[in-house]
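Following up on my earlier message about S-adenosylmethionine. Here are the inputs again, as you asked, copied directly from the submission form:
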Amino acid sequence: MVTLVGGGPGADGLITVDGLLALQRADVVVADRLGPLDLLAQLGPHVEIVDAAKNPRGSAMPQDKINDLLIEHALAGREVVRFKGGDPFVFGRGHEELEACAAAGVPTRVVPGVSSAFAGPAAIGVPVTHRGATHGVTVVSGHLPPDHPNSLVDWSAVARSGTTIVVLMGVATLPAIADVLRAGGLPATTPAAVVADAGGRAQREARGTLATIAGTAADAGIAPPAIAVIGAVAALSTPRPAEGGASA
Ligand SMILES: C[S@@+](CC[C@H](N)C(=O)[O-])C[C@H]1O[C@@H](n2cnc3c(N)ncnc32)[C@H](O)[C@@H]1O
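Thanks, got it. Here's what our run produced:
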């Protein structure tokens, strides 16, 4: 059996109970770079941990090799956990891996995780929806620049969607994304925020508008992994308790 576990965005407490139980039952854990990796140190000495980290610009274990590893261990009768950051089905190649396992006759299971698409904004007090402000949220990848021939995102439709826009993997492309959203009709004054290493010790944030966010993010030293959130909700933050406490 291969169990695909979403570990959440990085803080140990944001893995699900089911995910933690799967980890504790594992003989082999094949882990990515993001997610609550500290939890792996708590597993027994018999557990084999394989680092399948995919650095944005560094060397990475090829996807075929990862698939082969999962299959090989599972066919040898081991309980395998494929451990990923956030939710495995949100820009996580999760289904590809399940398909490869199934094709090799290996049964699979998925344990969803808390996606950074929602937990990232929440870490800086930004709700991705808010009554009266927006009736939806659009989660997009900024991995490819908007004008890239392989981009599957219709950025002008996103600009017109009236929803909160959450961009993953968009640090390098943020200036171009802000430009294309403005060209698509989103006002330059639309609030925007960026959070890096959300929930971790190195969490950083930048705030601004569609016109300024690329600059403020660069000034704040924002680097991957980071989430950008664009829309009225990006002006919100964690409410402070009222002075004087609750009134009866
Ligand atoms: C390949 S995607 C994986 C997303 C993951 N499956 C999820 O649901 O969160 C990696 C991107 O997720 C975002 N990300 C993941 N963890 C994050 C964190 N702790 N803080 C900010 N962004 C994060 C970043 O945009 C990063 O480039």
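One observation from looking it over: The chain has two domains: 2-111, 116-235. Hope that helps, and feel free to reply on this thread.
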